[in-house]
Structure formats: structure tokens, C-alpha cells
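Before the break, one more example. Copy the sequence into your notebook; we will annotate it together after we see the structure.
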Amino acid sequence: MAEENLAGTSPGESEASAQDSPAAEPDEVDQALADLVDETGPISKEAELLADLQRLQAEFINYKARVERDRDVARDAAIAEVLRAVLPALDDLTRAEAHGDLEGSPFAAVVTKLRNAGDKFGLKQFAAKGDVFNPEIHNALVQTPNPEVKENVIADVVEPGYMLGERLLRPAMVAVFIPA
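Here is what the structure looks like once it is written out:
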């Protein structure tokens, strides 16, 4: 068994398989190996460089997409912050308009321009009497039992809520009728 290991066969191989393989001269094996390395060396180097190039191109494409996505997120966040800061003034002007203070006043044009600017960016006002109460977008300031309702319904809007696309800028402040 020790002789088989020295002869280059493993302990599990049979003597027949060792005898069937042609005896190759060490010089011939070295020469064949050297020829094989010469033939595949430049190809594997080219393949390696090509793979590196393809990987770098893919990384660059991903980088560009990530930067574009980050830029869009930052832009949307900036728009949201500006609109959020303007909402109290818009609320005051809307209340003045509802009270009749803006009729014939230059502030009526300001309200219209502010609303148009908000619409341009996708600002949507929500919450109206009779809407179903949704705790994700409405803040209930008052809950009043009402035997006529079967689910929580908005009784009155104290302050409207605003959405920018799918993003909640400010929840609506509402009074709610709850089932009695």
C-alpha cells in the first residue's frame, strides 16, 4: 500500500487503473502544462480585464441611478418642507376668504396663486364633513357619540389636512361622530 502511494495512486484506486494509465515522462507533462499556460494566459487576462470593465460599467450605471433617485428624494423633501412652511399662511387666507374678508381684495389673487402653486407640485387638501375618519391621516380633536352613524365619520373640519402626492404633509384636525 505504501508503494502505491509513492507511485502516485491513492489508497482507494485499484492496481488495474494505475496500470491502464500510460506512463508519461515528467518532461512531456511539464512541456504540455507550459504550452497550456501559454495558450490560456493571455485569454484569461483579457477575460479578467473584460469582466472588470463590465463590473465597473454596471457599478457606474447603478451609481448614476442611485444619484438620480437621491436627487429626486432630496427635491421632493425640499418641496415638502417649503409647502409645509406655507400651509399656516394658506390656512389663514382660506379662513379670511371663507369669512368674506377677501372679496374685492388683492389678497384673493394671492390665495389663488398660492393654491395654483401648490397644485403645480401636487399639493392636495383633504378632509370634509361626512368623510370616513381615518386615524392615519386625521387627528380627532373631539369625539361625539351619534346614534345615526355606523362608523366613525368626520363631523367638522377644524383644520384641513394636506398631502403631497402620497406623502402626508399635515394631518387634518377634525371633530368625529362615533357610533353611540
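The helical segments are 2-6, 15-20, 26-99, 107-120. The chain is about 55% helix and 20% strand. Try to locate both features in your own notes.
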